[in-house]
Amino acid sequence: MRLLIVGGLSGQLSAAAKIAMDKGARVAFSADVDAALSALRKGQGADVLMVDVRQDIARLIRALDEERIAAPVIACGVKTDADAAVAAIRAGAKEFIPLPPDALLIAAVLEAVAEESSDLIAVDPAMKKVIALADQVAASEASILITGESGVGKEVIAKYVHSKSRRAARPLISINCAAIPENLLESELFGHEKGAFTGAVARRIGKFEEADGGTILLDEISEMDVRLQAKLLRVLQERVIDRVGGTKPVKIDIRVLATSNRNLAEEVRRGTFREDLLFRLNVVNLCVPPLRDRPADVLALAEHFTKKYAALNGVAHRPLSEAARLAIAGAKWPGNVREIENAMHRAVLLAVGDEIDRDAIRLPDGSGLQQKAPPEDAAPGGPLVGRTVAEVEQALILQTLDHCFGNRTHAATILGISIRTLRNKLKQYAVEGVAVPPPAAERASA
């Protein structure tokens, strides 16, 4: 994370900077608001601004809004600066950190405001296959298209690829193409010269120049207008950009990653996405599977997020009860990883007792989890009629095991039986000559 500290460097503010650096942040300094704005316009870039409350925070936030520089502001000041703290929050500061600084508070606030996440959990063979491909291509300079449904973790995969690349020491600059209005996206990507349009009060470096030497992530690339796609294609072909209102091209050295939750081949057929741009971006495709296709990751993610949010909220970590684990494993999770993360965050806050029980795991409206629908052939009066209980049990166990890619622990959890019972059943089927799916470890190495 890139942190820009604005204000005096002596005393307690510099102590806050040291704590942030100890937490892994890359810290830069500006003496005042004007110096900070100048640095941001020149492409220094920052994920978070930590500003001395005695600075003109209202003017800083106004300028950031007018020049469309997306960087949240955290105000800092001594506990006696109560009026200044209130004014800073009213002006648009996201948080106020009292000084002298507290290490845990700074770590929590920076994580919450910057929204950085490295929650890469890969237990299921389907997800491990994606990670293996990412490892294989990360060191190259190839453009990578990361696809998958909303909430599956495409941005997390992009961060992972960058961290494994030869550009890892340089910045990863992300821009959400769906979040910026069409008429502003060009300036955001390529920058602009002073006077290029109303509100362009100074030269502004765009995201491509900011990412020079590093990686740029074009999030939800499918939302980009076709006309702007043509300019992006030139950037990928020639590695030069033209600032809005500029008179000469600017050379850049970047690696491009892009994400999309749409089928871009279908968008090409509809005429909303350029085929030549798709070829340029899709040198390698990393398709991140939804949670329903990587069932072994569900409980691993749930446990990870309970630990994460217990620490973030300063509460004791409590394990998931067996009933909670069964409910989580059997739920639909249409929102994928993002949905299970939010549910576990709520559960950490709502749980009572020594465990997180099923009752604490709720949807945003307060209702319980939606469970997966039973197979069609399990309907009353369906094809089950005429079959023995042993035959139905065998079919259920083998189908569940295949659904879990051979992961016997996860299959046993879904079936509601012990792993020992499952192993005994599988041994019995093997003796009877029934083909039994190999364990997950053997399947992954095959």
Summarize the structure in words.
The chain has 446 residues and is an alpha/beta fold. The chain folds into four domains: 113 residues, Response regulator (Rossmann fold, 3-Layer(aba) Sandwich); 163 residues, Rossmann fold, CATH 3.40.50.300; 69 residues, Helicase, Ruva Protein, domain 3; 70 residues, Homeodomain-like (Arc Repressor Mutant, subunit A, Orthogonal Bundle), CATH 1.10.10.60. Helices cover 45% and strands 12% of the residues. It has 19 helices and twelve strands. The strands form three sheets. The chain has a five-stranded parallel sheet, with helices on both faces. Strand 1, helix 1 and strand 2 form a beta-alpha-beta unit. The longest helix has 17 residues. The chain starts with a strand and ends with a helix. The C terminus is likely disordered.
Architecture blueprint of SSEs:
Elements lengths: L1 E5 L5 H11 L3 E5 L2 H9 L6 E5 L4 H10 L6 E6 L3 H10 L3 E5 L3 H12 L10 H14 L5 E4 L6 H10 L8 E5 L5 H9 L16 H4 L4 E5 L6 H13 L1 E2 L8 E2 L3 E6 L3 H7 L4 H7 L2 E4 L8 H17 L9 H9 L5 H15 L38 H15 L4 H8 L3 H13 L8 H6 L1
Parallel strand pairs: 1-2, 1-3, 3-4, 4-5, 6-11, 6-12, 7-8, 8-11
Antiparallel strand pairs: 9-10
Helix pairs in contact: 6-7, 10-12, 13-15, 16-17, 17-18
